[in-house]
Specification:
The two termini are 27 Å apart. Helix 10 links the parallel strand 4 and strand 5. Strands 3-2-4-5-1-6 form a six-stranded parallel beta sheet. 42% of the residues lie in helices and 9% in strands. The chain is α/β, with parallel strands linked by helices.
Length: 326
């Protein structure tokens, strides 16, 4: 089948550390096993549908099987077509249907996982070079364009830190986007709930932020903070407004401090665990599947069970992407 051929190529490409003979034997055995599974379970797969089926399915009249159609032009071998297509708009459309269904079903812990750099003139797949800043910017832009389509209000759009909030507002000045949510940071939301519930929650500051804060104060001299960590005025007020109906958290922890994951758990639980929290490209598989050993990261270890409860309303991840074992 087409899946077995693709699986063979992926394995052969990504197992160069093994001898060529071992690689071929392993790939052939895997292909035979895949063929046997497909032969006995044809109802689960279709060549034009996703290999990974989200736990929450958005069904349509043209989708009787309940499987999410595979978005076009996302293959690394369709790079030219990807550059001419707004792939991220396709992802937003898929995510919206599944997200709304999850809300109706009462799900309060959700994740969206997808390749954020696919599509457009600067389209990049998992085989291209890119850095964390490019990835974070794309995830931020994806979320901001998604915000006006959400029916739930008010939304607190939570970015990793203050500087990212400032940059987001500089890049996106249109009122359509700015009025769609409260732009804030993980620290601001955690501290907001701390003021409400007291000692049950507190913000875990990354050591790097502590150092940068000290340097900012030193460079500011008589004027106080030099603003290295961002402008406090960029934060939208949270006090006095209606409580959040959704926490939309953009790329916490992934490529940043592990304390982000700890703080997201803290703010979700401080809100009573009833306000839905949706994490966009937070690489939660790293947290819940053993990438970070609990002995070395004891605070993070307290979040493992929490993130295992998250439901993937959209999950589209390349097989060769970095994860627990890569």
């Amino acid at each position: 089948s087409i899946y077995c051929r693709i699986f063979f190529v992926v394995l052969y490409t990504n197992m160069k550390q093994l001898s060529s003979a071992s690689t071929i034997l392993f790939a052939l055995a895997s292909a035979v096993a895949s063929e046997a599974f497909l032969a006995t379970s044809p109802q689960h797969f279709h060549p034009k549908e996703l290999l990974v089926k989200p736990l929450r399915i958005f069904k349509s009249a043209n989708n009787a099987q309940g499987l999410t159609p595979l978005p076009p032009d996302i293959s690394p071998f369709s790079k030219t077509s990807s550059k001419r297509r707004d792939v991220q708009a396709d992802f937003r459309k898929l995510a919206l249907g599944s997200f709304q269904q999850a809300l109706q079903d009462g799900v309060t812990q959700m994740e969206l996982e997808f390749p954020p750099l696919l599509g457009g003139d600067k389209s990049k797949s998992q085989f291209d070079d890119f850095d964390n800043v490019q990835e974070l910017n794309k995830n931020r832009d994806w979320c901001i364009e998604w915000l006006p389509t959400l029916s739930v209000k008010p939304v607190w759009f939570i970015l990793p830190d203050l500087k990212e909030v400032e940059l987001a507002k500089e890049e996106w000045g249109g009122q359509r986007y700015r009025q769609a949510a409260q732009f804030t940071s993980i620290e601001a939301v955690t501290n907001h709930y701390y003021e409400i519930v007291g000692g049950r929650v507190s913000y875990n500051k990354p050591w790097g932020a502590t150092f940068a804060s000290g340097m900012s104060s030193l460079l500011g001299g008589g004027n106080g903070d030099a603003g290295l960590l961002g402008d406090q005025g960029a934060l939208d007020p949270l006090e006095g407004d209606a409580p959040a109906k959704l926490h939309l958290v953009c790329q916490p922890g992934n490529g940043g401090p592990v304390e982000d994951w700890v703080n997201v758990k803290a703010l979700h639980e401080a809100a009573g665990s009833t306000t839905p929290t949706c994490i966009v490209n937070g690489a939660l598989d790293k947290v819940r599947d053993g990438y970070y050993p609990g002995l070395i990261f004891p605070k993070l270890a307290t979040t493992f069970d929490f993130y295992r409860q998250f439901e993937a309303v959209l999950f589209l991840k390349p097989i060769s992407d970095k994860g627990v074992y890569g």
